[in-house]
Specification:
The protein is α/β, with parallel strands linked by helices. The chain has two domains: about 230 residues, Aspartate Aminotransferase, domain 2, CATH 3.40.640; about 120 residues, Alpha-Beta Complex (Aspartate Aminotransferase, domain 1). Helix content is about 35%, strand content about 15%. The protein contains twelve helices and 13 strands. A seven-stranded mixed β-sheet has the order 1-9-8-5-4-2-3, with helices on both faces. Strands 7-6-11 form a three-stranded antiparallel β-sheet, with no helix packed on it. Helix 4 links the parallel strand 2 and strand 3. The structure holds pyridoxal-5'-phosphate. Pyridoxal-5'-phosphate (PLP) binds next to helix 3.
């Protein structure tokens, strides 16, 4: 075995790509004297709305805020059941609990690790009000099937598209099919504003969310003649994105296609080098899919691989200074959700025990991609 030389630098699991354009835009905002939600946030919203072809967009402080507003705007609350995957980040289930609704966890598909339409349909009861899908790793879920399911049962469809900023399936853009959809611009996402998110979708719902996201105040601050010239029509929250964050966002958004293309290139290099290693499954991309590649997720079968997922992560870290990540601890296994799964979730549990996310981001050099490939080959006992 030939671990990396001692002087090899730590390769992080993720690093944002920020350039002079973002810095210049932030300085411009600082000089403008307008720091809160204003012209830059509006520009960011227009760019996202126009490219996605949706009716409206609202730039907010995080994807979690967008999910919370989505549920409030859609009138989801106490006594409502909402079907959602457990193989996800806790944001959507937490938002559901915050509004008094009950997350009902349904299993994912073994090919894509997205919520399975048949499992979701089997979980529908008279208490079901909505479905929150999540596009795992950037591979869109079956958008056509979920739109059809929501329409047949009269349910609200919300897309948690945190991983799928630029992804398509069957010609449909992830985020454009739900009644509402949310994006994340958290520090590790495909584009970032440090913290930030976007709520997009049907105009009436986004309008309601916009009101709820600025305290329930009926007119935004930059449209008021006098500072007290407003009314509070609903008890709202404060979730708007600042123009400082939006300044970064507008510049990052213009780089999204290039970032995604580089991620796809790295993913292709990994797949061609790693497919065929015993017990290591590379990500599947279904026909008709353009993947967003937020994650490059491999799955380690402990019966067939020379080491377990945890051993692989530990050895990549200690012997090769390569950081990895795991997505996710299933939500139903988190302390506050103990006992909340009312049906078996075998695919979710197996995936979570085997999954490992390799570094895959535009700031990686070809040499760093090779370094990861060589390290994995060596762990499998293959000489390069
Ligand atoms: C699927 C998913 N949804 C929502 C979020 C929450 O995003 P944010 O940190 O912008 O609230 C994350 C964060 O990683 C996520 O992975």
């Amino acid at each position: 075995m030939t671990p990396q030389t001692p002087e090899a630098e730590q390769l992080p699991w993720n690093r944002p790509s920020l350039g002079e354009e973002e810095i210049t835009e932030v300085i411009d905002t600082l000089r403008s004297g307008w720091l809160t939600h204003g012209p830059k946030a509006t520009r960011f919203e227009s760019a996202v709305r126009d490219e996605l072809g949706v009716q409206d967009a609202f730039a907010v402080s995080s994807c979690t805020a967008a999910l919370h507003l989505a549920l409030l705007a859609a009138g989801i609350g106490a006594g409502d059941d909402v079907i959602t995957p457990s193989l996800t980040f806790c944001a959507a289930p937490n938002a559901l609990r915050q509004v008094g609704a009950r997350p009902v966890f349904a299993d994912v598909e073994p090919a894509t690790y997205n919520l399975c339409p048949e499992q979701a349909e089997a979980a529908i009861t008279s208490a079901t009000k909505a479905i929150v899908v999540m596009h795992y790793a950037g591979h869109p879920c079956d958008l056509v099937a979920f739109r059809d399911l929501a329409d047949r049962y009269g349910l609200v469809l919300i897309e948690d598209a945190a991983h799928a900023l630029l992804a398509r399936r069957d010609g449909l853009r992830a985020g454009s099919v739900g009644d509402l959809a949310t994006f994340s611009f958290y520090a590790n996402k495909v584009i970032t504003t440090g913290e930030g998110g976007m709520l997009i979708g049907r105009r009436s719902l986004v309008d309601r969310a916009r009101l709820l996201g600025r305290h329930g105040i009926d007119a935004p601050v930059w449209q008021r003649r006098r500072s007290a010239d407003y009314e509070v029509t609903v008890p709202g929250l404060k979730y708007v994105m600042s123009d400082l964050a939006a300044a970064v966002g507008v510049r990052q958004w213009s780089k999204l296609a290039a970032f995604t293309a580089r991620r796809a290139q790295i993913a292709a290099a990994y797949t061609s080098a790693l497919a065929g290693l015993p017990g290591l499954a590379t990500p599947q991309v279904l026909p008709g899919v353009e993947h967003g590649w937020f994650l490059y997720a491999v799955f380690i079968d402990p019966e067939q691989a020379p080491l377990t997922r945890d051993q692989m992560a530990d050895r990549l870290h200690t012997e090769y200074k390569i950081a990895t990540s795991q997505h996710f601890r299933p939500v139903h296994t988190l302390q506050v959700y103990a006992g909340s799964a009312d049906r078996p979730l075998p695919v979710t549990e197996t995936a979570a025990a085997r999954q490992l996310s390799l570094p895959c981001y535009p700031a990686m050099t070809d040499q760093q991609v090779e370094r990861v490939i060589t390290a994995v080959h060596e762990l499998w006992g293959k000489r390069s």
